[in-house]
Amino acid sequence: MIKLLVDFFPILLFFLAYKLYGIYTATVVAIVASFVQVGWYWFKHKRFENTHLITLAIILVFGGATLLLQDELFIKWKPTVLNWVFGIAFLASNFIGKKTIVERMMGNNISLPANIWNKLNLSWVVFFIALGFLNLYVVYNFDTDTWVNFKLFGMMALTAIFVVAQAIYMSRHAETPKAEEQ
To the nearest whole percent, how much of the chain has pLDDT over 90? Predict the structure, then answer.
């Protein structure tokens, strides 16, 4: 539960700051919150979480452009770029190393055939790319209030639904341990 809170800390603060003070204040809050997130994680674990560092770099670039140019379009593009970066990373893991990112993340907890790990990993690629395009659809077809609500509630709900669907799929394909391993 704490990890989930830490992971969504900048998004929640962005949402609250936007509702109270507007997009530019929310952008500053998101940048500061991302620095706090990275710092807190390092203080607690004495290492950095790659996803936090990637998110921090992207929020610095797109949030910084938003503030410097006073154009909210840059911060609205941030979720798309972040999702596409994750999609590319998951895709690249099919060709780099012996395990996909999904298998590296969950392989210690569940045993699945190699082809299932590959399907799960590729489904994350498709999910991240599609979520990036969906964000752009909302950016260009709705107002900023709708986009902010979609960013928090829509993307979180879609991700939760996708994770549940993956869990169901994994449970159908989980390999049972051999008798000598029990």
Answer: 78
Query: Under the phi-then-psi rule, with left for phi > 0, alpha for psi from -120 to 50, and beta for the rest, what region is 97?
Result: left
Q: Are 173 and 113 in contact (CB under 8 A)?
A: yes
The pLDDT tens digits of the residues spanning 34-86 come to 999 999 999 999 999 899 999 999 999 999 999 999 999 999 999 999 999 99
Amino acid at 152: L
Measured distance CA(66)–CA(85) in Å, rounded:
20
DSSP assignment of 12-25, as one string?
HHHHHHHHHH-HHH
With the CA atoms of 132, 91, 124 and 5 taken in that order, what torsion angle do they form, in degrees rounded to the nearest 10? -80
